[in-house]
Amino acid sequence: MRDVVAQMHRWWGEGEPFARATVVATWHSSPLPPGTSMLVGPDGAAIGSVSGGCVEGAVYELAQEVTDSGRPALERYGVSDDDAFAVGLTCGGIIDVYVERIDPAGFPELGEVAEAVAAGEPVAEVICVAVDGPDPEGRLGRRLVVRPEGTSGSLGSGRLDAAVAEDARALLAGGRTETLAYGYDGVRMDEELTLFVSVHATPPRMLVFGAVDFAAAMARIGAYLGYHVTVCDARPVFATPRRFPEAHEVVTDWPHRYLRTEAEAGRIDERTVVCVLTHDPKFDVPLLDVALRLPLAYVGAMGSRRTHDDRIRRLRATGLGEEALARLASPIGLDLGARTPEETAVSIAAEIIADRWGGSGTRLTSLSGSIHRQEPMRPAAGG
């Protein structure tokens, strides 16, 4: 996403119009999530993807038409097409793609968005992608840029801008991209306007506790998955950047104290994952006592089943209830038969991904139905 925004900014700075195609809604086994974009540049170059290759040709042609006409378009692609030979998603999914022309006159706020994304600062771009009925006020294609403090642009009315800004900031806090419906004057859940909220959030955090070989492998795979990775250990001789070159930061502190401090400072959210690799009661019990009281995405702890049973007994003694204890993934990771630190990191990462999307960890060949699990379905983005 950051590379796509950077390329947009370069073309925008040159003053030549180009097209952006964005996935705004998905159903069934769609290969890429909402917010994924493809650019078609002034020279005809295509950058990015909206379907992993299934409908790129059709979207490319539409993007060139939109660039020439200046009129945005919302198109649906999928196997539901009447003509079996028409363009469709061979994976069986359906996607709504919004295609728009981008130029300095139509999107003067792009520089602000690009600067925020490059600096790692949260920013949301809200676009009106569909209008129910005639559009005499020209709402289609209007946009509002929302930051934690302040907005720029407008969707057509002050009341609508205020309502959308409030909702967009909530999505920013959770790092979620969504399609929302409003009335012309900001009434929520009205069907007059369909707005796509594209969130450019700070990366989710992965906190790895325990400066061990497993932590080095976990830092590598965490960074690869897009997490901002912190390795923390109370022992300064082990907690060094040289031992963990692929971690974004290495902290020397007592794990429970560091986690509590980060939470109190507001640097922990519901996307944060915690991997406890110390398997030492004096470190992991106080740490897990803090972690399991926070609204984290995932909390896992390394250790044998005997270690796990002892850990649970100690955590019960701290006052943690069964509901909180049930959130603990321990022993950490999926059963892959892992032996090396790298294989173990893969098993932990697989469990984090399965936990996020509701996966079972079972071989796909033994399952039936949709491959891609999705977030709760929302209304289509009009058309």
From TrEMBL:
* A UniProt-annotated Pfam family: XdhC_C
Q: Where is the XdhC- CoxI domain?
A: 11-78, 117-183
Give the species this sequence originates from. Streptomyces violaceusniger
> Residue ranges of the XdhC Rossmann domain?
206-352
What name is this protein filed under?
Xanthine dehydrogenase accessory factor
